[in-house]
Amino acid sequence: MATGRTHRPATRSRGIPEATVARLPLYLRALTALSERSVPTVSSEELAAAAGVNSAKLRKDFSYLGSYGTRGVGYDVEYLVYQISRELGLTQDWPVVIVGIGNLGAALANYGGFASRGFRVAALIDADPAMAGKPVAGIPVQHTDELESIIRDNGVSIGVIATPAGAAQQVCDRLVAAGVTSILNFAPTVLSVPDGVDVRKVDLSIELQILAFHEQRKAGEEAAAGVAAQAAGTTAVPAAAREESSATDQGPDGDVPAVMPA
Fold first, then answer.
1. What is the DSSP string of 72-130?
2. Which of 45, 93, 171, 207 is the most buried (most CB within 10 A)?
3. 104-141 in b/e burial notation, b at 16+ Cβ within 10 A?
């Protein structure tokens, strides 16, 4: 199997938009589930629903892969799994280093989804001397002093940063200087990198804040709807009451009463 050092995905050279690239893992996850159930073909509507996108966007995305499906049949599941895996670079081995083996780093090291998707955790690195040699997920933790040699010896091009924010930029600089060209950053800070280095940021607190915004907006809308309904209920006058009021305003012959004498 090829290593990440000698082969890189061809998505950019083939002109696939970044938005499409971001959706390919969603399609692959849905297709993998279908494959595990031995489903041979899938329609664009079914796959779009499983991936959470609309079918027109899915068909457009797949056109960049040269896959148009067969009318009346749909898409071949196994072939699409291969196509998307190849485009994402998952048909080869990608050695990864995780730097920062605290609670988050240890959880990432124990995540079984990496290996099944072509990512091999080659090393775990931490600045705490007390962590050196301790096994996490069956892998002994190594000290940051060995970072450069670890990257060189394992042909690593992808690094995961799970350090505190204050240490993240220094770790990033060392990773880049050692030859890492793609970084997944879990530290709550923005990293500065040179051209040619890709950074993907995962900030759980930001995602929670976005959810909090939506919850607050929904609560506000519900409160406003409640006030409006209450206001409508207090201002509306029943028809019977209106008729009764109208009758009391009339004179003995049904006419509007004359002005009373002073």
1. TTBEEHHHHHHHHHHHHTTTSBEEEEEE--SHHHHHHHT-THHHHTTEEEEEEEES-GG
2. 171
3. bbbebbeeeebeeebbebbbbbbbeeebbeeebbebeb
**What is the helix (H) or strand (E) element at residue 248, kind and residue range?**
helix 239-248
Distance in angstroms (rounded) separating the CA atoms of residues 204 and 106: 16
As a whole number of angstroms, the distance between CA 181 and CA 89 comes to: 15
DSSP per residue over 131-186, as a string? GTT-EETTEEEEEGGGHHHHHHHHT--EEEE-S-HHHHHHHHHHHHHHT--EEEE-
Domain shared by 50 and 126, yes or no: no
Residue 129 forms part of a structural domain: yes
CA-based angle 147:98:161, to the nearest 5? 95
On whether the CB atoms of residues 64 and 15 are closer than 8 A, the answer is yes
Query: 44 and 76 share a domain?
Result: yes
pTM of the model: 0.72
103 shares its domain with 202:
yes
- Residue-wise pLDDT for 68-90, tens only, equals 788 888 999 999 999 999 999 88
Could you tell me which residues are annotated as the binding site for NAD(+)? 100-105
List strands edge to edge, sheet with 135-136.
135-136, 139-143, 119-126, 94-99, 158-161, 182-185, 198-201
- Residues 165, 70: one domain? no
Bridge pairing between strands 75-76 and 41-42? antiparallel
Share of the chain above pLDDT 90, in %: 66
Same domain, 29 and 83: yes
Using an 8 Å Cβ cutoff, are 156 and 96 in contact? yes
**Residue range of the domain that includes 128:** 94-206
